[in-house]
Every structure is written in structure tokens, then in C-alpha cells.
Amino acid sequence: MSEVCPPPSSQLAKNVTVTNHEGLGSASPAQRERRNLRSPGVSRRRRRSDHVGYLLVAPLFVLVVGLVIVPAAFTLGESFFNVNELNPPVRFSGLSNFRQLVENSVVRMATVNTAVYVVVGVTLATLLGILMAVLLQRRFRGRSVVIALLILPWALPGVIEGIVWEGIYDPNVGLLNSVLTSLHLIHHYQTWLGENRFVTIALIELVQVWQIAPLSALLILTALQVIPDELYQVGRLDGCSSWSSFRRITLPLARGGIAIAMAQAVIATLNVFDIPYVLNGTAPTAAPLTMETYLVSFQDLNFGQGYALSLFVTVVTISISFIVVKTVYRQVEY
Amino acid sequence: MTLMISNAKRMKPCALAGITCLLAVSAASTSAYASSNSPEGATTDATINVLMPDPPPPNLAAFTAKTGIKVNWENVDFDSMETKIVAASTANTYFADATDVDWSVAGEYAKLKWFYPIEQYLNVQSMMPDVAQLAAFKVGSVYEAVPYDSSFGVTTINTVMFKKAGITSIPTTIAEYTEDLQALKAKGVVKYPLNIPFAAGEWLSTYWYELSYAYGGHVLSTSGKPLFTNPSSPGYKAAAWMVNAMKTGLVAPGEIDETGPLAFHDLVAKGLVATTFQDNAGHVGTLYDNPSASTVVGQIEYIRVPGLNGPVAGLDDPDGIGIPRTAKNPKAAAALIAWLTSEPSQATFAGLNGAANAWSAGMPNRSSVLEQLAAKGLAGGRFLLAALKASQPAFSPAPPVAYPQFSEAVYTNLHEAAAGTESVAGAMNAIASVANQIASEGD
């Protein structure tokens, strides 16, 4: 049977407007006209309230400048200098730090490892997030308890999760080997981590997915909860199956939440450190870029290269997050 | 040093309280620490901050009562502490008045001048005869720290398993040791007889240093140049022996991923391996003989480290305590160090004055205290005393300036070689490349 369920932009357009995020700051001609017709008194009050607004955000602004902008600017500047405690003095070195990093095979390996962490992590966390959010969308008895339990892995520190999963993956006394052996799925205990590079990365990233997927689910669930039931009712009247409703109503209207969930997953996976550190040490087979940044800075004491690597990670994080938001995000007005 | 995984050596025997139980020593009077070691003019009524990987000694209040110096003892993990030391020292800001100094970073700290030469505040010469591992912190003519415990490499064997395999004599050479390993496996006594921590961590590096020493020499020359690229060199032979042990099934494949020191020692305690070539002194009588953690109680014994032509010395691995140059109150910090490392305090920490004040930081730094423990019946006490006196620094004359970088190259490449993603020759060349770079930068 063919589906006749229409997209929300046609029949449902009366109730729903889906725009991309550039629309956030734009105003309709009518709004602009109303704004121009305001009286001088209203204008003065508006200016006063603007001042109050600026005053209120001033502390936050100072904090952001002091703790984010200044260190970021410092990192940017210092990345062009040789800042090596074991090889002083500090001197301008142009692009030397970046060149050395590109030539460093361990850093190149860490870049590929990180790319795998991001692809596996963002994909799985988003898919699981959508699945969990859809399952939690409708109210049922004990839903709040389930949500509270769901958020537990996200609330736990990565180191603790690493230690927990260390016991699961342990090649000699691990739970995974024990269960698989009991089920006769494997005959001998396996070494899960450290032998095969991509298996190691995938298994480590599974732990991170277990950690971040609940937050993804909650972010998407927030978007789902504001979708009016009427839309689904109209969809059903138009002959939408559950799958069609999901594809044509749920997914398009949840894009805002999905975009934010994906962006947080990108940030988390690009900056993963503790879980691979606990599960696989500093072995280059699964070391992410942040671990290399730590080792270069605090072990080799080559802060210049550490700054350069941090800058690279920051630029990549911002770029990918921007692309994700630009591609996936859509503003929804009901 | 370096990272958390590298903290295998932090897993110092934590059961000196256990020693105490074995000894059942009657309380003895606690005399004041040797006045000859106390720094002149130590500030009283001061408060100092101390950063250590071990919890404070139970009787720390006795120090405050005696000197008037209050101590804020912050117990942080080794990696966080190292990061704090690097960050604060680089920024030239205060972070603590005294802190743990691992032997491995003594060379680096000396070059960077991050810590006061300890002899500026303490009479190091007077400690020398009793504190055997003081030399591990000597760089050039200065001492970066004073050891507050002692630690060195020993070989441990499961005597029951060895007997089951029909081995009647203790191996004294690497050849005999290898034959015994093969016998243990061939006779099915244990599937994987040998314990080697192949996970990428500091334990793997120290294992290699000890085995190289057993094969006849250090891995670096006195100028820091690599001595292990030639296949006939001790370092190369040691690496080849280790990797071959993995390939031939003497070592469990899972050891490639046994991160963390606990897992490594657990393999012994759970009877999953028969021997560890490079173990830490102090586990017999504690972890291995603790019924709640071990299934091989009474079965593990120390033996001298087998060498090429006979037993060799174990290599030093002590923890020290030093005074950062950014310390606000170095004299008060020195007073604490003097108290902490004094013979009476070490005797108390070792449980010789009762279990209540035993401290879990490790074996005593002083031969005289170990001698007393041995006289009271400490398991393997006589062996440990002799081994402590004979132990040697892992590097001569001092660890390389960029030791953490060198060690990382060692353990990552040996790990890769064991995992089969790199050859032994490739691993040796990669480590040599880092060693040469460090040596050239240090010139």
C-alpha cells in the first residue's frame, strides 16, 4: 500500500513553520512596521531596559572573556612560538609547531583515531538518542524513573565508567568473555582491546556512546515533547503509518534537538580522553588527539606544540559543530 | 612516572599494617627524629601544604605537636600531581611546600631547577649510610629529594607450581629461568607461566630496564645515548626475549591489555601465572599472602633476579619527597621531610610500634628499620634487606632529562612489538631515535 501521508510543510503548514536557523534574527515586515511606530517614551524605556540587560550579562561577559577568549587568544599566539621547557628560550617559530605536528606519525595516527571516534560516536549516540527519545515520548507509568536511570551513565565521571568497563573487557577475568563463553559463542577468552586498532577504538567508543547517548536522548526528547498531538492525529487521518509519522512528522520537527544532540556528541567525541586513557593507556593504537595534546604538553613539556594541537582540536570542533548545526538544525514554530 | 597506567609502581605494598600483624610487635617508645637532620630555624606555627600520592601517616599529629607546624596533606593520584607540578612550576606559582618526587623525574627536575637541592635544608650525608636509595635522587652533585620508602626489582615465583613442574632448583640464570618457564607450560601446570605487563605503561618500561640489566647492562650510556640497537646488546636481547615469550605462549595474550597495576599483580595473587621476572619487593607477606585477595597464600617467594651468568641486583624504584622552589615555607617543609624520613618515624610507619600508626606508603627507606622487621620475622625480610643494600639505580649516572618522553617511547613501542604491529628491531630503532633526540637536546 502506498503512503499518502503528506509532509508537514504542505497540509500542516497552517500550524507549523520550519525554518533554518538564519531566520532566528529576522523580523517580518509587519514586525518592523510595528517597531517603527513605537512612541519616544517606549523607546526610552526600551533603552533603559537594554542597559539593565547589559548590566545583567556583564559578569558573564567578563567570565567568558577571562576564561575563554583570553586563553584562546593566548593559545593562538603561543602556538607560533617555541615554548619548550627543556629547550629554552621562548622564541618565534612561525608555523614550525604545526609543521612538526603534521610530520609526526603519532599525531597523524591520533587524528585518524579521533576521526573514527567521532564518526562511530556521533552516529551511534544520535541513532540511540532518537530511539530512546521516541520510546520515551509517550507518557507511561514509571517514565520519570526510567529517565532518571537513563541519565545515570551521563552523570558518572568518564574515569569511573572506564574502570567499570575495564572489568567487562578484561581479557583474563572480564565479564564479556565470561558471558560469551557461557553462551558458547566463543571457545577461548579473547583480548578485546590493544590487539586490533579499529576494534579497540570501536569498543572504547561504545563506552563513550553509553555515556553520551542519554544526554542525546534527553535533548531530542525535549524537542519531541513540544510537537502537538494534533499533528499526529491529522497524520493518522491522512493515512500515515507509524513509520511515516516518524519520518514525516517526528524527524523533521525534532531536527532542532537532533542538531544540538549531534553537536554535543561531536564535542564529546572530539575531546574524548579519560575513557581511552583508562581502558588502553597511552598506546598510540587508540590514542585520541587530546591525549597527544596532554602528552606533548605535560610529558614532553613542549607547550608550543601543545598549543598548536589544542588550536587544531578547537578549530576542528567548532567547524564540525557549525557544519552539523547548519546542516541539521531547523527552527520550528508552532 | 608519567601516567596513570604508569602508576604500577604506585601500587607499593599497601599492607605494612599486615606486616605489623605478622610481627605482633609490642609497642616501643617513639623517640624524636634525629636532631642532626632537622633543618635549622624551621618555622614553628606555620602551615604547609603537602601533595602526595599516599594518604597521610596516621601519626601526623605527632609532628604538629612536636614542631607546631600544621600540615595540610593532600592525597592526589600520581598523574594529577605530576600535572600540577608541571603547570605550577612552569608558571612559577605556588602549589605546595613539599611534594612527591619520583626517582625517574629527578634528572628533569634538576635541569629545570624546579626543586631545591635538598641538601640546602637537610643533612643528607648523615642519612647516606642508612638510606640506601638516596643515590636514586642524586643528579650531578645535588639531591632532588629524599626517599620516604624503598622499592626495587625482585623476581617472584610460585613455589608450588615450580614443584609441580618438577623444578627442584631455583633458577639463577636467564637460560635456566627460560627452561623452567617452558617446563611449567609443557607440563600443563599453568597455561601462561610468565607475567609481563605488556599494556602501554611505565611497568613495561621498568620491566625492560631490569631484564636488560640482567642481560648485562643499562639501556642508555652515561651520556644518554641508546645502547640497544645492536641485536647482541642487552637491551635488544631483553626486548626480543619479552616479545618471544608472548609469541610462544609463555605470556597470556590478555596481558597486552591488562592496564593498571592491580590487574598485573592480581594475576600472581589469583594463581594465573607462576612467576614475575620484575616484580616489586614487598608483595610477599602482604598482597600475595592476604587471604581475602590471594588464592596463593604462602606460595610466592622472592628469588634473586636471574642474570646472564648468575643473579643480578634489582633496580631502584623509590619514591622521594622534595621541596619545590615555589614553596612558601621551605624550612617547615624540610622539617616535615626530616621527620617523615627519620629512623624512628620509619619504624613507626613499618608497624614496629604497633599497628595503629602503620603507614601504607611502602617498605621503609632505612636499612636499619628493615633489619628490625627482618629480625621480627617479616616474610622474606633477610632477602629484602640484602636486596635493598645491593639494589642499583636504573640509569647511570641519572635518568635522562626527558625521562617521561623516553619511557613513553619505550612502553608504546614494546607494546606494539608484543601486539605484533611492530618488529623488535623497529621498536628498538624507534626508541633509539627518541633517546638520541633527548640526548642531543640535553647537550
Question: What's this, in brief?
Answer:
The complex is a heterodimer of chains A (334) and B (443). Chain A is an all-alpha fold.
Compute the number of helices of chain A: 15
Mean pLDDT of chain B: 88
Largest interface: A-B, 31 and 43 residues
> CATH homologous superfamily of the largest domain in chain B, by name?
Periplasmic binding protein-like II
Instruction: Give the C-level CATH assignment of the largest domain in chain A.
Output: Mainly Alpha
Strand order of the largest sheet of chain A: 1-4
How many angstroms separate the termini of chain B? 23 Å
CATH architecture descriptor text of the largest domain in chain B? 3-Layer(aba) Sandwich
The portion of residues assigned to helices of chain B is 25-40%
Computed over alpha carbons, the radius of gyration of chain A is 25 Å
- Helix content estimate of chain A: 55-70%
Strand percentage of chain B = 5-15%
Strand order of the largest sheet of chain B: 2-1-3-11-6
What would you note in describing this structure?
The complex is a heterodimer of chains A (334) and B (443). Chain A is mainly α and 334 residues long. Chain A folds into two domains: 51 residues, no CATH class; 237 residues, MetI-like (MetI-like fold), CATH 1.10.3720. In chain A, 69% of the residues lie in helices and 3% in strands. Chain A contains 15 helices and four strands. In chain A, the strands form two sheets. In chain A, strands 1-4 form a two-stranded antiparallel sheet. In chain A, strands 2-3 form a two-stranded antiparallel ribbon. In chain A, helix 2 crosses helix 15 and helix 9 runs antiparallel to helix 13. The two termini of chain A are 31 Å apart. About 2% of the residues of chain A have low confidence. Chain B has 443 residues and is of the alpha/beta class. Chain B folds into two domains: 220 residues, D-Maltodextrin-Binding Protein, domain 2; 151 residues, D-Maltodextrin-Binding Protein, domain 2. Chain B has a five-stranded mixed beta sheet with strand order 2-1-3-11-6. In chain B, strands 8-9-7-10 form a four-stranded mixed beta sheet. A two-stranded antiparallel sheet of chain B has the order 4-5. In chain B, strand 1, helix 2 and strand 2 form a beta-alpha-beta unit. In chain B, helix 8 packs across helix 9, helix 8 packs across helix 15 and helix 15 runs antiparallel to helix 16. Chain B is globular and about 65 Å long. The N terminus of chain B is likely disordered. The chains are: A mainly alpha (334), B alpha/beta (443). The interface between A and B is large, with 31 and 43 residues.
